[in-house]
Amino acid sequence: MTCRNYKDLMMAYLDNEIDDEQKRAFEEHLASCTQCTRELKEFEKLKQLTDNVKLIEPEDRIWEQYWGNVYNRVERSLGWILFSVAAILLTIYGGFELIENIIRDQTVGMLLKVALLVLIAGLAILFVSVLRERVYFWKKDRYRDVRR
Amino acid sequence: MSSFCEDETIAIWSCRSGSREAFEAIVKRHMKDAYFIALGLVGNHEDALELSQEAFFRAYRNIKQLSSEGKFFPWFYQILRNLCFSHLRKRRLRQADSLDEFKENNIQVQAQDLFDPGVVAERNEDKDRIWKAIGQLDEKHREVIILRHFRNLSYEEISKILFCNTGTVTSRLYYARKRLKEILDREKGGR
Question: Which of A50, A52, A65, A77 to mutate to probe the B interface, most B CBs <10 Å?
Answer without folding.
Answer: A50
